[in-house]
Amino acid sequence: MNTWRNASLVVTALTLVALTAACGQEKDPSSTTGQAVGNAAPAQQQAEGYGSDGGYGSGAGASEAPAEAGQLAVWDSKELGEVLTDGEGFTLYRFDKDTADPPASHCEGDCAKTWPVVSARNATAAAGTDASLIGKITRDDGTEQLTVGGWPVYRYAADTAPGDAKGQGVGGTWFAAAPDGKKAAPKADAPAGGGQADAAGLSVRKDPELGEIVVDKRGMTVYRFKKDSAWPMKSACTGDCLKKWPVVSPVAKNDVEGVTTKGFVTFNRPDGIDQQSLDCWPLYTFSGDAKPGDTNGQGVGGTWYAVTPEAKLAGVPK
């Protein structure tokens, strides 16, 4: 009995230490640089349709032998909808310059180094999907490439771990594949309101008055509420308040650019809504902002302020 109690105390102590490290300490402003990865920004997307770095995207070259498709699976992404993955859990992509009828690949040479083809060997349809959509084409080098719904599928060399989707939108021509081979997309009936802002990435906009502030993928200003707390993480905006100040939905850590990822955690609110935080501060948008660039929520009630890339209150003297 004592052994069990001691083990429980150790686990509890370790949990508190981990949470304190994430949300309870003063942060060093010099080490709050965000990751500049995820969906490619329009300025980075090249006309050729392959992405950056000479028109083919970025990342290491392909492995010598194409990865086998193996047992396919479906990843339910809040941002992308249902995404098809290979047997190792890596996101599979399709290329707009390819064709599905007839199935044909137009990614060769350097393109295929950045977008490694997926071998059709040992391919098994994901559970609950239409196995008749699985096919293959034979490339010029003899490789049998997997097709889904007629579309050849690829990995992205810059995806280094299962669940990465850094190739989404690269060049305006590369997109994560849905289980039917079409472009992955959120379901039409996915929640987009009711106190919760659209799932969105976070980036930085230069405001003429406030300087650099955080915006969501729609370009809408992101705010903090002074009555909230970061440790313990707590929101003082509930009920009708959320109609005026919708929460920012959880954002993938690899879908931010120029924004700190310290204290970048999901706040599981008591009302059941999941909310994104920066430096452990809950984030919101403002219903009074009608278009990107609006900052009508700035200073409201002396408690609502736009957020800097370091998660500080914009326009408030330090």
UniProtKB/TrEMBL annotation:
PROSITE patterns in the cross-refs: PROKAR_LIPOPROTEIN (PS51257)
Swiss-Prot/TrEMBL keywords: Lipoprotein, Signal
InterPro entries reported in the protein's UniProt record: Lipoprotein_repeat, SCO0930-like
Stretches with biased composition (Gly residues): 51-60
Leader sequence residues: 1-24
Pfam families: Lipoprotein_15 (PF03640)
The keyword Hydrolase is annotated on this UniProt entry: no
Segments of this protein annotated with the region Disordered: 25-63, 180-203
Biased composition (Polar residues): 30-46
Compositional bias (Low complexity): 187-201
Descriptive protein name: SCO0930 family lipoprotein
Species of the source: Streptomyces argenteolus
